[in-house]
Amino acid sequence: MGPLVVNEIISPDTNLFLAFLIGIGFGFVLESSGFSSSRKLAGMFYGYDTTVLKVFFTAAITALLGMLFFSLFGWVDLSLIYINPTFLHSAIVGGVIMGAGFIMGGFCPGTAFCAISIGKLDALAFIGGLFIGIVAFTEGYPMFEELYKAEFMGTPTINEFLGLSRGLFSFGLIAAAFGMFWVGEWAEKKFPREEY
Amino acid sequence: MNIRLKLAAVFLPLGLIIAAVPENTTKAYKLTAEELLVEAQEGAQFMSTDEIADMLVQKDPSFQLIDVRAQNEFEKFHLPNAINIPISEILSEDWADVLDQDVKMNVFYSNGTLKANEAWMITRQLGFNNNYVLQGGLNYWIETILNPTAPASTSPDEEIAKYDFRKGAGMALGGASVSTTSATTSSSPMPAVKKKKKKKRAAGGC
Fold first, then answer.
1. What total number of domains does chain A contain?
2. What are phi and psi of A36, to 5 degrees?
3. Where is the composition biased (Basic residues) (chain B) (predicted)?
4. What is the pLDDT along chain B (206 residues), one digit of tens a residue?
5. Within-domain flag for A65
6. What is the interface pTM, i.e. ipTM, of the complex?
């Protein structure tokens, strides 16, 4: 009965060890799928390569279906799954900053570490910027605290907000994901690039 | 057939199934009758009077005594810092914050253990953690902490140490008459208080 660590089926140390193995697997797959190239991520925003959208949405709907079926079979207790709490204002501001960083840098934090492991210098610069950002935020925390904590909403979920059942919303999301994949592939044909 | 269509052929029907079936609302933590029987027989819910006395003397902030007797009984006598939640009000929304939390350890008591055990069973079945029962209830509290009987002088040292501790705790908690049977009230070894593990949500993030 999951979640494993909460129900003390595995110890927190075993949990960390599993996370380590999964992390290595994740990094390996990211690298081998070409995500350590910043052009691949930037392509998302120019439309010539929408692999990022397809990969991450496929991951999301796979995990979504998996969790819902696990819950249906009684293998996992969804009420014990951690949901990141929503602070609306900081989520919006953070999203904008992260998105801008994505376009300019061509990495997300995960792929940046992938890229640095194969010796990419642009990733080194990106991670440098990441650390500067962390230090600036931490040191300047009193300045940002008000914004950071504004509009605390607890842990709302979109389906509750819309008044839909979890299953129905999930189906909608899966349908929307395939719609986006279709748009993505259309964009790849519309804005092709020879070499990147 | 391209990969997108293949994926869609798998995911969309699964999504349809998930949309069609009702959500699984059975709470995994809800105990079956057998599980509850095992727990009740093990007596895992009991905290000894010595443990509670020790925590009270040390002003341990991590636990809360809860008197489940009626209000008039509570007003006549109650343990230090106890709050009153009569058993009839145990399901009231007002007390949900006290009973269902991960921070403090709640210890129910009544005159005996009957009502306190009832309160424990109800909250246990609701899936609340951190609720315990004072072993023997107030009667046993008075017997062991407020009026401990002196062991025979030939008793083993632990018995005498335990008696000294109880005597001291009883005095500190405003019960027993002060008598001078023993001068070593505070040097007695404290009974070990075992901290119970708390259940937290699994933390995670991107």
1. 1
2. -80, 5
3. 193-206
4. 677 788 888 888 999 888 888 877 666 556 777 777 888 888 878 888 888 888 888 888 888 899 999 888 888 888 888 889 988 888 888 888 888 877 788 899 998 888 888 888 888 888 787 889 998 888 888 888 888 888 887 888 888 888 888 888 887 776 544 444 444 444 444 555 555 444 455 554 44
5. yes
6. 0.72
On whether any CB of chain A is under 8 Å from the CB of B201, the answer is: yes
Residue type, A176: A
Global pTM? Answer: 0.57
Whether B27 has its CB under 8 Å from any CB of chain A: the answer is yes
How many other C-beta atoms are found inside a 10 Å radius of the C-beta of residue A81? 15
Domains of chain B, first to last:
33-141 (3.40.250.10), 148-188 (no CATH)
- Which structural domain, as residue segments, surrounds residue A22? 12-190
Q: Which two tokens stand for residue B114?
A: 């009957």
How far apart, in whole angstroms, are the C-alpha atoms of residue A152 and residue B149? 57
User: Residue A42 and residue B205: Cα distance in Å, rounded?
Assistant: 24
Candidates B4, B18, B201; nearest CB to A181: B4
**A1 belongs to a structural domain:** no
Q: Is B156 on the interface with A (CB under 8 A)?
A: no
